[in-house]
Amino acid sequence: MDMKKYSGSAFLKVDDLRASGPRRVAIADVREGKYGRPDMEFDDGSKIGVNATSTKALINAYGRNSDSWLNKQVELAIGEVKYQGEPKACIIITPISRPTEKKDPSAPPSMDDEIPF
Fold first, then answer.
1. Fewer Cβ within 10 Å of end Cβ, the chain: N or C?
2. pTM of the model
3. What is the CATH number of the domain that holds 85?
4. Is residue 77 part of a domain?
5. 95: nearest Cα among 27, 47, 3
C-alpha cells in the first residue's frame, strides 16, 4: 500500500530541508498557487510555493514561460529573504540545468539550417 497519502502535506517546509539537507529535483509542474505566487511540483512529488527571488532566478535561466522550466534540474536549499524588513529563512531554488539559450527576437531567421531531402 502506498503510504504517501498518510505522510502529511506534500509542500516542503524549511524544517524538511534542515533535516535532510539540500536536494536536487526536476521541475514536473508549475501552477497558479495561493498568495499570488506559483506552486511548483517536482519529480519526487514534493511541492513548494515559489517566492519572487526564486522566480527571478528561474526566469533568468529558463525564460519567462514556465513551460520551458519543465524537466529542468534545480537545487532546493535553505536561504534567506527579507520579509516585512526582517530576514526570514525560506527555500531557495537554484537552477542546475543549462540555461535556455536566449535568442534575439529582432534578429532575422538563420539561413544555415539544413534542408532535408
1. C
2. 0.76
3. 2.40.50
4. yes
5. 27
Q: Are 32 and 66 in contact (CB under 8 A)?
A: no
Decide if 115 is inside a domain.
Answer: no
Contact 101, 37 (CB under 8 A): no
Task: Please tell me the predicted confidence (pLDDT) of residue 113.
Answer: 59
Decide which of 95 and 10 is more confident: 95
Average pLDDT, integer, range 9-38: 91
Please report whether residue 110 resides in a domain: no
Range of the domain at 57: 9-95
The sign one gets for the Cα dihedral 54, 59, 62, 64 is positive
Question: Cα–Cα distance between 62 and 103 in angstroms, integer?
Answer: 12
**Amino acid at position 50, single letter:** V
Q: For residue 62, is it within any domain?
A: yes
Q: What whole-number distance in Å separates Cα of residue 62 and Cα of residue 70?
A: 10
Angle, CA of 58, 64 and 67, to the nearest 5°:
85
Q: What's the number of domains the chain is made of? A: 1
- Which pLDDT value is given to residue 36? 84
Closest by Cα among 71, 86, 30 to 54: 30
